Amino acid sequence: MREPQPTRILLADDHALVRRGVRLILDGEPDLTVVAEADDGAEAVAQARELRPDLAILDIAMPRLTGLQAARELSRTLPDLRILILTMYDNEQYFFEALSAGASGYVLKSVADRDLVEACRATMRGEPFLYPGAVNALIRNYLDRMREGRALPARAITDREEEILKLVAEGHTSQDIADMLVISPKTVERHRANLLQKLGLKDRLELTRYAIRVGLIEP
């Protein structure tokens, strides 16, 4: 009988040291193998499209595209790809955004040596993997919504607007952003004006503060 093929993994994190440590954990398992690495979210999307791995492990805080933005794009374009978020943030907001972006699990870097291998296996079995604090957050959120009879709030801005917000906050000019996204500078300016209006902000500085507050970039 043929041996089952190991799960092919794409690993994305902007810190080479973290990638090295995570790769050591994963490549030490016979049923898991890292086939590609990326140091930002946009490269992760490109690598996934080219190599078609079984599983993508994405850090949240990365340049160009965050792990959450990359997860949304990959869920849309490669629906069979399983996604895990690996993060230092024990944060309910990111956790719920990760689930809505299409991730099957959320693993804290602080306990990756304990949880990551099982998270990969659970995800490939089609099971969600949640760290203990996330389970508590899910239950609490569900009970709150039941008690108050409310649905989850809709996102204020579109995926494209979020993409441009992140790039503006990282200090790129309209021309830079236009070149990166293959759109016109005028389109970038229109999106930026829409962002300022929707979010009730005045200028680039306030956009940058907002991007930090919602976790698109690190302070």
UniProtKB/TrEMBL annotation:
UniProt keyword Glycoprotein present: no
Species annotation: Streptomyces cadmiisoli
Origin superkingdom: Bacteria
Protein name as catalogued: DNA-binding response regulator
InterPro entries reported for this sequence: CheY-like_superfamily, NreC/VraR/RcsB-like_REC, Sig_transdc_resp-reg_C-effctor, Sig_transdc_resp-reg_receiver, Tscrpt_reg_LuxR_C, WalR-like
Entry keywords, A to Z: DNA-binding, Phosphoprotein, Transcription, Transcription regulation
GO biological process: phosphorelay signal transduction system; regulation of DNA-templated transcription
CDD domains: LuxR_C_like, REC_NarL-like
Alphabetized GO MF terms: DNA binding
HTH luxR-type domain mapped to chain residues: 150-215
Response regulatory domain: residues covered: 8-124
PANTHER family in the record: TRANSCRIPTIONAL REGULATORY PROTEIN NARL-RELATED, TWO-COMPONENT RESPONSE REGULATOR
Modified residues (4-aspartylphosphate): 59
Pfam families, per the entry: GerE (PF00196), Response_reg (PF00072)
